[in-house]
Amino acid sequence: MFATAAFGLISSGIWGPPYAEPLRDAAFALLSVRTPVRLPGQSDAWAWQGNTGRLIGPDMRMRSRALSARLNGKPRDREPPRRPQPEVAVMTVMSIARFERFFRAAAGLDVDKNDLKRYSDFVDAKLYDLLTVAQATAKANGRDIIRTCDLPITKGLQESIHRFQKIDQEVELKPILEQLATHPALDRTPDEETEATYPDIIGGLSLALAQNFKILHPDLKNPQTQHWDEARAVFDLLL
């Protein structure tokens, strides 16, 4: 702004030679910092290029390095790929409330959002263990598809699934479990009927987990890290 005003004063002849030359030098210095800058009376089609001290038209203006390289046929330097962000499971306030209500109904336990990570890791690992065995069964039977009958559902787990379904009529945890029903890629692909059973299986595992806390520690109210580790060790022996 100062440089533009200075050029206006120089052009008007208000300041004589003793002042015009130093003022012009100062204006040139300012114009060399930012380009392009319009002069008074110039249209948008022209701009002052401060580093050369000449007027340039729109087709002569400076281009970005990337654009110039592309127009000149040179390969454009690619930006380094962004590191993928880790996936983060987002639980709404309502989801956390249902999660807490389920454990209270299943075994009189008080859990909170800090237990969600341990719980999620547990159900992920156990579902994958069941599918690993089911995959081996499907392979032994010469099938590329995992069917429901391939899943190693024991009598105790089946009963836990049935009890979960009764509790879930009030808690309505199943929609949340559908989001947790994920697993790594397998050599055999589960069919749709098998995938549809995941939420109920996770629900049965969740009920068995809650009751396992009470069996090991009858007076337990708020499971701590050691209690989660103990429960995980028991399930690892059985599943």
TrEMBL record:
GO molecular function annotation: protein heterodimerization activity
Coiled coil: none
CDD domains to which the protein is assigned, alphabetical: HFD_Aq328-like_rpt1 (cd22922), HFD_Aq328-like_rpt2 (cd22923)
Domain of life: Bacteria
Protein name, as recorded: DUF1931 family protein
Naturally occurring in which organism (per UniProt): Streptomyces spiralis
